[in-house]
């Protein structure tokens, strides 16, 4: 009898918050991911190499961000690129570019 009330009191309060936060974030990540993919496909003259290599260098990334987030500063772009370049090779791979974290930041 004593075990039942504490879980009943804590679980309903604890569970809705993460779910409420996770659902919009996941939706936003998908929206931003689609925007990034559409931007890359629409501007194949700029991003054609990425479509083939699945890698993007800093100058190309800067062009992409200027199209998606025009107000982002160069410093912010560089910091974002550096944080996305997980293996530190000077390029971001498609997996790094389209990660949920990157999508959340771009939103």
In short:
The protein is mostly helical and 107 residues long. The protein is built from seven helices and two strands; from the N terminus they run αααβααβαα.
Entry keywords:
two-stranded antiparallel ribbon; 6% strand
Structural summary, described in words:
It is built from seven helices and two strands. With 107 residues, the chain is mainly α. A two-stranded antiparallel sheet has the order 1-2. It is globular, with a radius of gyration of 19 Å. Mean pLDDT is 80; it is low at 4-23.
Strand order of the largest sheet: 1-2
The H/E string reads: HHHEHHEHH
Task: Give the end-to-end Cα distance, rounded to a whole number of Å.
Answer: 47 Å
Rg over CA atoms, rounded to whole Å, is 19 Å
Number of strands: 2
Per-chain topology:
Blueprint: H1 5-14, H2 16-42, H3 44-53, E1 55-57, H4 58-68, H5 74-84, E2 91-93, H6 94-97, H7 100-106
Antiparallel strand pairs: 1-2
């Amino acid at each position: 009898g004593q075990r039942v009330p504490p879980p009943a009191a804590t679980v309903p309060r604890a569970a809705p918050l993460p779910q409420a936060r996770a659902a919009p974030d996941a939706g936003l990540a998908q929206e931003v991911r689609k925007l990034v993919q559409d931007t890359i496909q629409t501007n194949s003259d700029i991003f054609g190499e990425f479509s083939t290599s699945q890698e993007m260098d800093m100058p190309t990334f800067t062009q992409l961000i200027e199209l998606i987030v025009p107000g982002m500063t160069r410093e912010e772009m560089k910091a974002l690129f550096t944080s996305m370049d997980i293996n530190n090779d000077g390029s971001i791979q498609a997996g790094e570019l389209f990660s949920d974290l990157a999508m959340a930041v771009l939103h």
